[in-house]
Design goal:
The protein is mainly alpha-helical and about 110 residues long. It contains four helices and two strands; from the N terminus they run αβααβα. The protein has one domain.
């Protein structure tokens, strides 16, 4: 499995995690999440365990992306509590806030 396939799986996991909860990424956040997925895919591919258990590392990556999205939604909920008209959109500021709080979170950072 090459890095582009892994990155696609990680991004799709994040996108699905947001959509099933009624959220979506704006265009900037989508681009940022795709970039994070590429970083994570590379980190997975170069991990020493990838030679013996790549599917396990990819699963860890998927679970990490799902958790990351859940944390971004919590940040978004804080904004919505301050402004009820705030849409259910995950933007780049929400991603960056989560990165500041959770990195170094392998394999995303």
């Amino acid at each position: 499995m090459d890095e582009s396939i892994i990155a696609g799986r990680l991004y799709e996991t994040a996108d699905f995690a947001a959509r099933i909860r009624g959220y979506k990424f704006n265009s900037g956040a989508e681009s940022e999440m795709r970039e994070r997925a590429m970083i994570a895919a590379h980190n997975i591919a170069i991990h020493p365990v990838s030679k013996t258990n790549l599917p396990g590392l990819v699963k860890i990556g998927e679970l990490t992306f799902e958790y990351f999205v859940e944390e971004m939604m919590k940040s978004s909920e804080i904004e919505r509590s301050l402004d009820p008209e705030f849409p259910s959109i995950i933007g780049t500021h929400t991603i960056r806030d989560s990165i500041l709080r959770f990195c170094p979170m392998w394999p995303i950072c």
